[in-house]
Amino acid sequence: MAKIEGTGKDLAKVAGGTIAKPSESLTVGQLERALLARFPRADAEEWDRMGLLAGDPAVPVTGVMTALDPTRPAIDAACAAGANVLLTHHPAFLDPPEAFSPSREVAPASGTVVYDAIAKGVALMNFHTALDVSAEAVRLLPGMLSLDFQRVLMPIGDDPAKGYGQVCKVRAADAPFKLSHLSARCTSVFGRAPRVWGDPDLVVENVVIANGSAGNVIEECVNAHVDCLICGEARYHASLDAWQGGLSIIEVGHDTSELPLAAVLARAAVDAGIDPAQVTVFDQGHNWASPESTRV
């Protein structure tokens, strides 16, 4: 059973699938090809950067650490765990940095991350928007929030099971379910207080979930007369317009909405043939904090 680095907790439900094969023969390149079959480049946005970003595809995999972001602490944790692959949701960069250097004074953060990864023998691999729209990612947050998934709001290509925005229904046993109840559930599930647009007493029946940036999902929700959108983040003026158009919005935080995807990547690595004992999830849920407000 895989572990969540820094917590000592078992990672639930990360078990090998029927296609799993011995990890001893798996190279970094073979792992990439197996994951590309699961999260195809064709599903990703044109501007995205995904797959093996840095590293030798011919090197055997000694272990895999999964995380939301490829950071220097994540690289150090991978080394400490004996993992030579850091498998993440986000890429180290979209536009190539101007320099790759160990010094932050010479290179931007992304440049130092790539330099460190190469110097320490840790391959960087990510699947970003192809993972966002995958059928398994689409079902993830509705399940966590105990909402009944109905369909994808904005399917990609000809596959209705993949895309952006998950249309959900509030379960009959929870009705009548107010916006305040849904907000409280988000706080409980994600461990952070969200930003909420809307009347707390509004009775919510249909909900759309969009991890990360909401983008044009907001407009689609307004057009579809959705009661509430749960998203990672939304632009202020887009939220203001949508709220005036009758859409309530719960912003849980970009990273907060996508941290669970590290577990999806862990399962995918195991199904590709990596021994579950060699797969570790790096907990990045404490990269920042909100000071408690003090009443004077």
Structural summary, described in words:
A 7-stranded mixed beta sheet has the order 2-1-13-4-5-6-3, sandwiched between helices. The chain is built from 10 helices and 13 strands. It is globular. Strand 4 (64-67), helix 2 and strand 5 (85-88) form a beta-alpha-beta unit. Residues 7-23 have low confidence and may be disordered. The protein has helices at residues 28-38, 72-80, 109-119, 128-132, 135-144, 179-190, 217-223, 236-244, 254-258, 261-272, and strands at residues 3-5, 9-10, 51-54, 64-67, 85-88, 123-126, 148-156, 159-169, 195-197, 206-213, 228-233, 248-251, 279-282. The protein starts with a strand and ends in a 14-residue tail after the last strand. It is α/β, with parallel strands linked by helices and 296 residues long. The chain has 2 domains: 3-128 and 259-282, NIF3 (NGG1p interacting factor 3)-like (Udp-n-acetylmuramoylalanyl-d-glutamate--2,6- Diaminopimelate Ligase, Chain: A, domain 1), CATH 3.40.1390.30; 145-255, Udp-n-acetylmuramoylalanyl-d-glutamate--2,6- Diaminopimelate Ligase, Chain: A, domain 1 (3-Layer(aba) Sandwich), CATH 3.40.1390.
**CATH class categorisation of the largest domain:** Alpha Beta
By helix and strand content, what is the structural category? alpha/beta
CATH topology of the largest domain: Udp-n-acetylmuramoylalanyl-d-glutamate--2,6- Diaminopimelate Ligase, Chain: A, domain 1
CATH architecture of the largest domain: 3-Layer(aba) Sandwich
Mean pLDDT: 91
